[in-house]
Amino acid sequence: MVNLDQLTLRSPAKLNLFLHIVGRRDDGYHLLQSVFQLIDWCDTIHLKRIPQHEVRRVNPMPGVPPEHDLVVRAAHLLKDFCKIDDGVEIDLQKEIPMGAGMGGGSSDAATTLIGLNALWNLNLSKDTLCALGLKLGADVPFFIFGQNAFVEGIGEKIQGISLETPDFLVIFPNQGIATKSIFQDPELTRDHAQITIDGFLASPMSYQSNDCQAVAMRICPEVKQALDWITQAVTGSQPRMSGSGSSVFLALDPKTDIAKLENLLQNLPKGWVGRVVRGLNKNPAYNLISSE
Question: Fewer CB within 10 Å, N side or C side of the chain?
Answer without folding.
Answer: N
